[in-house]
Design a protein that fits this description.
Helices cover 45% and strands 16% of the residues. It is an alpha/beta fold. The strands form 2 sheets. A 6-stranded mixed β-sheet has the order 1-2-3-5-7-10, sandwiched between helices. A 4-stranded mixed β-sheet has the order 4-6-8-9. It is globular.
Length: 263
């Protein structure tokens, strides 16, 4: 696939999407947002892709929205800047969060603003030691409208999430790991390698089961205990009735690796 602001690599069923504006610390522009949305959708629709990794070229994951290029948009009298920004960026965050494949963020450096929202929308985060994640919008009299304010309180203790959002100060990867925001720490320069190892472990599993498992976990956030089992049934029953489920049981009994067909 050809993009101007992304690099795309497909290896052994793993799609690696690399934000490629290193001179601007991979800051988001409308073009980058549009291309990332297209890449995530293509990866989600491709039956040969088992997992998706998102990372950044150079020394940052993403520094957020490109406010330098948006300076003209913020001139006096312009009142719809936020609306237009959300129109471009929010569909990307939703596409990542709702992708039918597991998505892993390989955070190699700073992840700020919409960059942090992107990492938080992923299912798993691998971060290099020394990397930092933050939502600094309030420091510019803006609001973190990309979904970080939704997800931070879900994955961090309430008061820690409040401090990040209200001060605009970042959290380093080591502290984020201690709090469970980051799944794995990597040495500097090794975040993508560690993320690939994690993705390989995930991709070895049944693709139908992975998709159903992620869907249940995403959709059940507002389900009550009483309705959980009924609402998950139409999602998981086709998996139990699939060829892959029979293959999984057969491979286990024959003490061999399963061969998945995705049906």
């Amino acid at each position: 696939m050809d993009f101007e602001t992304l690099n795309w690599q497909l290896t052994d069923g793993l799609a690696v999407i690399e934000l490629n504006r290193p001179d601007a610390l991979n800051a988001w522009t409308p073009q980058l947002g549009s291309e990332l949305l297209a890449a995530v959708r293509v990866a989600g629709d491709d039956p040969d892709i088992r997992a998706v990794l998102i990372t950044g070229a150079g020394r940052a994951f993403s520094s957020g929205a490109d406010l330098r290029s948006a300076r003209e948009e913020l001139r006096p009298g312009v009142t719809d800047f936020g609306i237009r920004l959300r129109t471009v960026y929010n569909p990307v965050i939703l596409a990542v969060a709702e992708a039918p494949k597991p998505v892993i963020a390989a955070v190699n450096g700073a992840a700020a603003g919409i960059g942090a929202a992107l990492a938080l929308a992923c299912d798993l985060i691998v971060a290099a030691r020394g990397a930092r994640l933050g939502v600094p919008e309030v420091k510019r009299s803006l609001v973190a409208a990309g979904g970080a304010l939704l997800r931070l309180p879900r994955v961090l203790p309430r008061n820690v999430a409040n401090e990040l959002a209200l001060t605009g100060d970042p959290i380093d990867a080591e502290r984020a790991y201690e709090l469970g925001l980051v799944n794995h720490l990597a040495e500097p320069g090794q975040a993508l390698d560690v993320a690939l190892q994690l993705a390989e472990r995930i991709a070895a599993n049944g693709p139908l089961a992975l998709a159903a498992t992620k869907r249940v976990m995403v959709e059940s956030a507002d389900w009550s205990d009483g309705e959980f089992f009924d609402r998950q049934r139409p999602i998981i029953d086709p998996v139990f009735a699939s060829e892959d489920a029979r293959e999984g049981a057969t491979a286990f009994s024959e003490r061999r690796d399963p061969v998945w067909k995705g049906r």
